[in-house]
Amino acid sequence: MALKEYPDHHDAELVLKLYELRREDVMRDSRTQLIAKFLPTSFEDVIAVTKGDHPLNAAFRQCTSFWEMTYAMARHGVMHADFMMESNGEGLLIFSRIEPWLAEYRAAMNPIAFRNAEWVAKETEMGRLIAERFRKRMQAHLDAAKAATA
Q1: Rounded to the nearest 5 degrees, what angle is found at the Cα of 30, between the Cα atoms of 25 and 49?
Q2: Which of 55, 79, 81, 89 is the most exposed place for a label (fewest CB within 10 A)?
Q3: Ramachandran angles phi, psi of 4, nearest 5°
Q4: Residue 5 lies in a domain
């Protein structure tokens, strides 16, 4: 699979379309809810949000499927990956909240879950930078949660 070497006007059009989609009311509400309220401290917290009766379940499904679709475009060369990541890193914030339990999640739920987010986080320059920033935030959250229960 050949990745795009340079971004072009088609990449710009796709990035602008992704921005428009993120502004849609349901998507905006889902993003707001998930970013503010989905702060897992255990694998059980991650699995809980996948249950249909969890208050964040719809937001979780909306956001994770949107970001996986977006990152798939980069992974498959539809869009220049680093160009796309410059304005679409939010999905890695959500990924960073699942990543500590990713192997368990895949074993329990779906063996290919979050593979596109994982790819951009590891295989693109911008993704690595963004993911590292979010991983530090997540680690601080986990450290604070551990200290609060100690």
Answers
A1: 160
A2: 55
A3: -70, 130
A4: no
In a domain, 93, yes or no: yes
Domain of 78 in residue numbering reads as 22-149
Q: Is residue 145 part of a domain?
A: yes
- Decide: helix, strand or coil at residue 77: coil
Number of domains in the chain: 1
The dihedral sign for the CA sequence 68, 138, 98, 131: positive
Asked if residues 66 and 110 have their Cβ atoms less than 8 Å apart, the reply is: no
Displacement of CA 34 from its chain's centroid (Å): 11
pLDDT tens digits for range 77-106? 999 999 999 999 999 999 999 999 999 999
Q: Which contacts (CB < 8 Å, 24+ apart) does range 27-36 have?
A: 27/62, 27/63, 27/66, 29/59, 30/58, 30/59, 30/62, 30/63, 31/59, 31/63, 31/90, 33/59, 34/59, 34/60, 34/63, 34/94, 35/90, 35/93, 35/94
